[in-house]
UniProtKB/TrEMBL annotation:
Domain Sulfatase N-terminal, first and last residues per copy: 30-318
Keyword Transferase in record: no
Compartment(s): Cell membrane
Similarity comment text for this entry: Belongs to the LTA synthase family.
Membrane topology listed for this record: Multi-pass membrane protein
Superkingdom of source: Bacteria
Keyword Transmembrane helix: yes
Section of the entire sequence shown: 221 to 637 of 637
Protein name, as recorded: LTA synthase family protein
Keywords: Cell membrane, Membrane, Transmembrane, Transmembrane helix
Length: 417
């Protein structure tokens, strides 16, 4: 019953930090285009292959936006769908299977639903079959108004390769759709071309492949380079469109593309031994907010996908009264810097804890294991609380408990303190 939700609310209230007042409403009333970049990891940013930049366009774009360089994906077996879950709910995905399949009939009060209540039209654009990851069912539960799936795109043999519609066509057709949707809107695009096995038509290879011992990693550089080129086409066309003045972009990587099976090759490329600390750090994915009114800055805070919702909602100036959120505004300087992975590992401002071992986050040096005990404890608590909400379908009791103490009241009190 509703009592089951009370410990979670209490736990989160205790951990809660206020939203950043300086950024509150910087994008008020604006449209949002969230771009989920398939398999895109931070190590390619500002990095080179054969003397050439791998993501030349993104490297420049991030100089003009708000960029986070210590931002991690937090997905498990549900991969892209897990990243979608983290963003929409600010809760952790489950440890086994994909929550998009196993808990699609749960009650949620997801970000699209709240945006809808605040006058936004909400959609997802992704040129794959609508049933993939059970998206068509889960999107209803998340309160997404419209899903533009494969059947809404012009997909032909000529404009497809590998997994389906090439990203350049996906971006172009999506921009056309966006120009017609009711404003203000929140739409999320999910790219596809930079997906394992990372293959491309010959004429789309804008960089030579890598020369490591892993063909997968070697080809990955090319699909990343391709994605960067077509992102450029999209953003430049977006900037020329009428949308530009009233729209912000939130661009982020969904999860790793290169698994730990390719550690040796990764080490050859990066010129260092990939131990468990380096492997952990490779789970960082890019995050960039871009648009008029967003001041350029590189932010080094440690965070993860669970933090996206509170960060974005604060920027939009929308009061989000769902207290069951495990993330924290990435822009709040006093925020608790704790990024928890689904395996119970964590990164904090000082430490990285991996399966009982402890590392200094800055130096990567292994240190006394006890130093990470509090972090491991918190990570466990965090995941247990989140799981209890999902497995117990506890958000169905939200309305009954809301009278207890809404999150914005807590925030106000904390800010006054
Ligand atoms: C499929 C796409 C890729 O539609 O989102 O999913 P992934 O395999 O990365 O989870």
């Amino acid at each position: 019953d509703s009592n089951e939700l009370v410990p979670v609310i209490n736990y989160l209230n205790e951990k809660n930090t206020p939203l950043n007042a300086e950024y509150a409403g910087v994008a008020k009333g604006k449209n949002v285009i969230a771009i989920s970049l398939e398999s895109t990891q931070t190590f390619v940013v500002d990095n080179k292959l054969h003397g050439e930049e791998i993501t030349p366009y993104f490297n420049d774009l991030k100089e003009e936006g708000l960029y986070f360089d210590n931002f991690y994906h937090q997905v498990k077996q549900g991969r892209t769908s897990d990243s979608e879950f983290l963003l929409a709910n600010s809760m952790y995905p489950t440890n086994r299977g994909a929550v998009f399949f196993t808990h699609s009939s749960n009650e949620y009060e997801a970000m699209p639903e709240v945006l809808g209540e605040n006058g936004y039209s909400t959609s997802v654009m992704h040129a794959n079959d609508k049933t993939f990851w059970n998206r068509n069912v889960m999107y209803d539960s998340l309160g997404i108004d419209k899903f533009y799936s494969k059947e809404d795109y012009n997909v032909t043999e000529e404009n497809s390769y590998g997994w389906g519609l090439l990203d350049e066509h996906f971006f172009a057709q999506s921009l056309d759709k966006m120009k017609k949707i009711e404003q203000p809107f929140y739409t999320r695009m999910i790219t596809l071309t930079n997906h394992h096995p990372f293959t491309l038509p010959e004429d789309k290879k804008y960089i030579e492949e890598g020369n490591t011992s892993s063909g997968t990693l070697n080809r990955y550089f090319q699909t990343i380079r391709y994605q960067d080129e077509v992102l450029k086409q999209f953003v430049e066309n977006f900037k020329k469109s009428e949308l530009y003045d009233d729209t912000i972009l939130m661009i982020y990587g969904d999860h790793f593309g290169i698994s730990e099976n390719h550690q040796k090759a990764m080490g050859e490329y990066l010129g260092k031994d990939i131990n468990e600390f380096e492997q952990f750090q490779l789970q960082r994915v890019p995050l960039l907010f871009y648009g008029k009114g967003i001041e350029p800055q590189v932010n080094h805070t440690v965070g993860g996908q669970v933090d996206l919702r509170p960060t974005l909602m604060n920027m939009l100036g929308i009061e989000d009264n769902n207290p069951i959120q495990f993330g924290h505004d990435l822009l709040n300087e006093d925020r608790r810097q704790l990024m928890v992975t689904r395996d119970g590992d964590f990164a904090s401002e000082k430490y990285v804890g991996i399966q009982g071992s402890c590392y200094d986050r800055q130096t990567g040096e292994e240190i006394e294991a006890e130093l990470c005990d509090p972090g491991f404890k918190q990570a466990k608590e965090e995941l247990t609380m989140s799981d209890s909400v999902i497995y117990g379908d506890l958000l169905r009791y939200l309305d009954e408990t809301r009278v207890v103490e809404p999150m914005d009241e807590q925030n106000k009190q904390k800010q006054e303190e």
